[in-house]
Design a protein that fits this description.
heterodimer; A: about 325 residues; mainly alpha; MetI-like fold; about 0% strand; B: about 575 residues; alpha+beta; Methylamine Dehydrogenase, Chain H; 3 domains; 4-stranded antiparallel beta sheet; 12 helices
C-alpha cells in the first residue's frame, strides 16, 4: 500500500471536481435558465399564486441561502423534489438510471464481446482484404450518427418488416411491480434489441481498432519472437501470449465507456423513446426543473469521474511498468 | 529553425499517399469540399424555395378514397361536360381532352387562352368559353373559333335550348349566344356593380340560373329574354352550380359554402360544412347524393339525407372541377400546389420535404455547416487541447494537477444537455454550436498531448536545449511541439469527425442555428413532421452524407496514426 497516499489524494481531487461541477451547475441553472414558474405553470396564474409556487419550491430565498440548502441536502443524499413531477427526485432518478444502464451495458457487452476477438483476428490477418473490410465496417458504423442509424433501423425492422417494436421499454399498457419485474420479460427483450444493437454497432469500432492496433504493437515485442522460437503454434502465440498483453488499452477504454454510459446516448433514447436518464436530463433543462437536472448531472459526473479514476488505478495494477506518481 | 518544423509538419502528407484507404478518404473529402464550395451551382434550386406545381391531376373515386391517377400534363383542368359515351374536359392554356370510356385523348385547339367552361348537348354540340373572350363551338366533329369583341374572361356556359346558349363572365358579362348565326348578344345585368359571374346552369323550368361573386344570383328567362336578381341566402362568393335533371340543385363557393335545393320547388338552404376551405366545384343528383371538391385536396361527399363529410383523398392538390357519370366520379385539378413529400424524381432527385423544399439542394447546402463546424471546431479544440497538454506536461506539479482536474470536470459534463443549456443561455447560432462542440472536446486532446509531452521532456535533446539556456516557451514550442505534431494532426482529423457528428446531433435535437440548412436539421424536420416513417427518401441522403464525410476523415486519420506510431506500419 505504498500508493495509498496517492489514492487518497486522487479520491479527494475527484470529490473536489464533483463539488465544482455541482456549484457550477447550480449557478448556471439559476442565473441562466428561465424561471421555473414561467415554464412549469400554465397561463392564468395570478402573481400571488406564482409567489406561492416560488415559495413552495424555495425559490424566494436569497441565492446563497438556496445554495447552502442545496449543498446540505446533497451531502445527505437528498436531491429534493422535482418541480415537474412533484415527486422525490431520487425515486425518478434511480429508475431512469436503471433504464439507461440496462440498455448501455447490454450494448457495451455486445460490442466488446464481438470487437475484441474480431480485432485480434484482424491483426493476425493484417494487410489482407479481410483486415481492410473489417476496418472499413468498424469505422463506417463509428461514422454514422446513431440517431440516423436508429431511424433507419426503425424504418426497416419496425415499419417495413414489422419484426420488432420501435419505441419504449414495454408494450403499453403493462404492469410491473419493480425494475426487475419490468425487464425480466420477453417483451422487454424485444424492445431492447433495436436500440442496443444501434449503440453496439456504434461502439464496435473502438474495441476492434484498439485491439487490432495494440496487437500489432505487441507482435514486435521480443517475447513473441521467443514464443515463436519455442515452436508454439501461431494460434497459441496469438491468443495466449499476444492477446493477453494487448488487452490493457481495451480494458481502459471499456472503463471509460462504462463511465460515460450513465449519461446514456441521448439521441438513441430520444429516437427510441427510451425512458432513460439522457432524455430526462434534456426535459429537466427544458422545463427548468432545477432539482432533477442537478441530480441527473451529478449522477453522470460521479460515474465518469470515478471510473476515470478507476482507469488510472487499473492501469498501474495491470501494467507494473506504469508507476503511480 | 522554422523550416525543419514545417517539414516535419508536412511529413504526414507523403505517408498518407501510400495508404489506399487514406487516398479514398482524401478524394471523398475533396468532393464534399467541392460540394460545399459550389453548392449554389450544384443545387438545382434555392434550399429554402418552396416548390409549387401546376398539374392536370385526376383523382378517381374508389372504395379506398379518392386515388391519384396518371397526370394529364402540366396545366390545370377547369371544367367538364358529359353526355352518354363522351366527356369533355377543358383546362388552362387552351387544353382540351375528350374521354370515351377510359380512353383519354388530347384535342389540339388553335387557342392559347385559359379555357374556363364547357357545355355539351346530348347530340354532341359543344361550346367552350375562356379567358380574353375566347369562344369555341363544335357542331359536327370539328371545333371552330368564334371571334368575339369580348376582352374579359368568360367563366361558364350553359345551353338554353338546342340553338341558344348563355355565357357569363367577369364584370357581370352575360351573353346570349345564337349558334345558327354565331352571334353574341349582350344582356343587361340587373345589378351593374361589376361582379364576376362564375357559373351558369339550366333549371328544370327552362330558365337559367347564374351565380357569382359575393353570393350574387340571377335568373335568365328565355321567354322575356331578361335577367332578374334572385337570392340564394348567402353572401359568400359562389364558384359552381349544378342542377340535376329533376331539379335538385347545389351551389358551392368560398369557405366551404354549400347551398342545396331539394327538388325544383324546394328552398335554398345552407348546409353544414365539414371544412371551411374554398370549394371550386360541386355535383348532386336528384336523390341528394353529392360531391364537392376544393382547394388542398378537399373532397366532400354527401349521402342522401345525411350531412356532408370529408372524404379521404390521396393528394393535397387544388381541385377545380368534378366529373360524374355512370362509370364513376373523378375530381380534376390543379392550380399550383405545394409539392410536399414527393418521392425522388427527375425534378427532385432526393424528393421533397414537408414544406415542398427540394431535398437534393438542401443536402448540397448542408455540407457547408458540417464542414464549417467540423474544421473550425476541430481547430479550436486543437489550439486549446495542445496548449493545455503542453503546459500541463511540461511544468508538471501544481499546474499539471489543476489543468488535469479541470479536464476531469469537463469529462463530468454530458454533451447534449450542456449544449441545450448554452442555447437557452444565449440564442441558438452557429457560434454557440461551435462553442459547445469545442468546449467539451478539448479534454481528450489535452490528455493525449500531455502524456506525450511527459515522455518527451525527459529526452536528452530537451535537456541539452535547457543547458544551452533556452527559455521555457522556446523549449515548449520549438523543441517539444514539432515532436507532438504528428499526434496533433491525428487528433485533429479524429476531432473533425467527432465535431461533424456533434453538430449533426445538436441540429437533430433542434438546437442548431435557426434558418440554416444542415444535414442534422433535415433529419430533425423529418422526425418532427412524423412523416419519415413513410417518406423513406427523406432520411437516407443526409445520413449517408454525414457518414461519408466522417468516414473519409477517419480514413485519413488512420494513415496519420501510422505517422504517429511507426510500429503500426505494415511489415513485409
Amino acid at each position: 500500500m505504498r500508493n495509498s497516499g496517492y489514492l487518497i489524494r486522487r479520491f479527494l481531487q475527484a470529490l473536489l471536481a464533483l463539488f465544482i461541477i455541482a456549484t457550477l451547475l447550480f449557478f448556471l441553472f439559476r442565473l441562466g435558465l428561465p424561471d421555473p414558474t414561467t415554464v412549469l405553470v400554465s397561463e392564468g396564474l395570478s402573481p400571488e399564486q406564482r409567489e406561492d409556487v416560488r415559495r413552495q419550491f424555495g425559490l424566494d430565498l436569497p441565492l446563497w441561502n438556496q445554495y447552502l440548502i442545496f449543498l446540505q441536502n446533497t451531502l445527505t443524499g437528498d436531491f429534493g423534489t422535482s418541480f415537474h413531477y412533484r415527486a422525490p427526485v431520487s425515486e425518478i432518478i434511480w429508475e431512469r438510471l436503471g433504464n439507461t444502464l440496462v440498455l448501455m451495458l447490454a450494448a457495451i457487452f455486445v460490442s466488446y464481446g464481438i470487437g475484441v476477438p474480431l480485432g485480434a483476428w484482424l491483426s493476425w490477418r493484417r494487410g489482407s482484404s479481410v483486415d481492410s473490410w473489417g476496418i472499413f465496417f468498424g469505422l463506417m458504423f463509428r461514422s454514422a450518427p446513431m440517431f440516423w442509424t436508429g431511424m433507419i433501423s426503425i424504418l426497416i425492422f419496425g415499419v417495413w418488416l414489422e419484426w420488432l417494436p420501435t419505441s419504449g421499454m414495454r408494450t403499453l399498457p403493462y404492469e410491473a411491480t419493480g425494475f426487475w419485474d419490468k425487464i425480466l420479460t420477453l417483451d422487454f427483450l424485444r424492445h431492447l434489441i433495436l436500440p442496443a444493437m444501434i449503440v453496439a454497432l456504434f461502439y464496435l469500432g473502438s474495441p476492434l481498432l484498439i485491439m487490432r492496433n495494440t496487437m500489432l504493437e505487441v507482435y514486435g515485442e521480443d517475447f513473441i519472437e521467443m514464443a515463436r522460437a519455442k515452436g508454439l503454434q501461431e494460434r497459441s502465440v496469438l491468443f495466449r501470449h499476444a492477446a493477453r498483453n494487448a488487452l490493457l488499452p481495451v480494458v481502459t477504454q471499456l472503463a471509460v465507456t462504462i463511465g460515460l454510459a450513465a449519461g446514456g446516448q441521448v439521441v438513441v433514447e430520444v429516437v427510441f423513446s427510451w425512458p432513460g436518464l439522457g432524455r430526462e436530463i434534456l426535459n429537466a433543462v427544458r422545463t427548468s426543473d432545477f432539482p432533477l437536472a442537478q441530480a441527473c448531472f451529478l449522477i453522470m459526473a460521479t460515474f465518469v469521474i470515478f471510473l476515470n479514476l478507476l482507469v488510472d488505478i487499473l492501469y498501474s495494477t495491470l501494467d507494473p511498468r506504469v508507476r503511480l506518481s | 529553425m522554422i523550416s525543419p518544423a514545417l517539414k516535419e509538419a508536412f511529413a504526414p502528407l507523403r505517408l498518407m499517399l501510400q495508404d489506399r484507404l487514406a487516398v479514398v478518404g482524401l478524394i471523398v473529402l475533396t468532393m464534399i469540399f467541392c460540394m460545399a464550395l459550389f453548392a449554389p451551382m450544384i443545387a438545382s434550386q434555392d434550399p429554402f424555395a418552396i416548390n409549387e406545381d401546376e398539374d392536370g391531376s385526376v383523382l378517381l373515386r374508389t372504395d379506398d378514397g379518392w386515388l391519384l391517377q396518371p397526370s394529364l400534363g402540366q396545366v390545370a383542368l377547369n371544367d367538364t361536360a358529359s353526355r352518354a359515351g363522351e366527356d369533355l374536359i377543358v383546362g388552362r392554356q387552351g387544353s382540351l381532352w375528350t374521354r370515351t370510356a377510359d380512353n383519354w385523348e388530347r384535342v389540339d385547339l388553335p387557342v392559347i387562352a385559359d379555357l374556363n367552361g364547357v357545355a355539351m348537348t346530348d347530340t354532341g354540340s359543344a361550346i367552350i368559353v375562356g379567358g380574353d373572350g375566347a369562344l369555341l363551338l363544335r357542331t359536327g366533329t370539328d371545333w371552330e373559333v368564334v371571334t368575339t369583341d369580348q376582352t374579359v374572361a368568360l367563366n361558364s356556359v350553359a345551353w338554353v335550348d338546342d340553338e341558344t346558349a348563355l355565357i357569363v363572365g367577369q364584370d357581370e358579362t352575360i351573353l346570349r349566344f345564337d349558334v345558327t348565326d354565331k352571334s353574341l348578344s349582350p344582356l343587361n345585368s340587373p345589378l351593374g356593380r361589376g361582379m364576376t359571374l362564375n357559373a351558369v346552369a339550366k333549371d328544370v323550368d327552362g330558365t337559367v340560373l347564374v351565380v357569382g361573386e359575393r353570393g350574387v344570383a340571377m335568373r335568365y328567362d328565355p321567354a322575356s329574354d331578361a335577367v332578374e336578381l334572385v337570392r340564394l341566402g348567402s353572401s359568400r362568393t359562389l364558384e359552381d352550380l349544378h342542377i340535376a335533371s329533376s331539379g335538385t340543385a347545389l351551389a358551392i363557393g368560398e369557405r366551404g359554402t354549400l347551398i342545396r335545393r331539394d327538388g325544383p320547388d324546394g328552398k335554398w338552404t345552407v348546409d353544414k360544412t365539414p371544412d371551411s376551405r374554398g370549394l371550386m366545384a360541386g355535383w348532386i343528383d336528384d336523390a341528394g347524393r353529392g360531391y364537392a371538391v376544393g382547394r388542398n385536396g378537399i373532397i366532400m361527399e354527401r349521402a342522401p339525407e345525411q350531412d356532408w363529410i370529408l372524404a379521404s383523398t390521396e393528394s393535397e392538390r387544388h381541385l377545380r372541377t368534378i366529373l360524374v357519370n355512370d362509370a364513376g366520379a373523378i375530381a380534376l385539378g390543379s392550380d399550383k400546389f405545394v409539392v410536399r413529400f414527393a418521392s425522388p424524381s427527375a425534378a427532385h432527385w432526393f424528393g421533397t420535404d414537408h414544406l415542398g423544399r427540394d431535398l437534393f439542394s438542401r443536402s448540397m447546402y448542408g455540407s457547408r455547416i458540417a464542414l464549417l463546424v467540423g474544421f473550425l471546431g476541430a481547430t479550436l479544440v486543437m489550439i486549446i487541447g495542445t496548449n493545455v497538454g503542453l503546459v500541463a506536461g511540461f511544468y508538471r506539479g501544481k499546474t499539471d494537477t489543476i489543468l488535469m482536474r479541470t479536464v476531469d470536470v469537463m469529462y463530468g459534463i454530458p454533451f447534449e444537455p450542456f449544449a441545450l443549456i448554452l442555447v437557452l443561455l444565449f440564442t441558438p447560432s452557429l457560434g454557440i454550436v461551435i462553442l459547445a462542440v469545442s468546449l467539451l472536446t478539448w479534454r481528450t486532446t489535452a490528455r493525449l498531448i500531455r502524456a506525450q509531452v511527459l515522455s518527451l521532456r525527459e529526452r536528452p535533446f530537451i535537456k541539452a536545449a535547457r543547458v544551452a539556456g533556452a527559455s521555457d516557451l522556446r523549449i515548449m514550442y520549438l523543441h517539444i511541439l514539432p515532436n507532438v505534431m504528428p499526434l496533433v494532426f491525428l487528433e485533429l482529423a479524429i476531432t473533425v469527425g467527432v465535431a461533424i457528428i456533434a453538430e449533426a446531433t445538436l441540429s437533430f435535437l433542434g438546437l442548431g442555428p435557426p434558418q440554416s440548412v444542415s444535414w442534422g436539421g433535415i433529419l430533425h424536420d423529418a422526425r418532427l413532421s412524423g412523416a419519415w416513417r413513410t417518406a423513406w427518401w427523406w432520411n437516407l441522403p443526409p445520413g449517408i452524407f454525414i457518414m461519408m464525410t466522417v468516414l473519409s476523415v477517419f480514413f485519413i486519420s488512420r494513415s496519420l496514426e501510422l505517422v504517429a506510431n511507426p510500429r503500426l506500419r505494415a511489415r513485409r
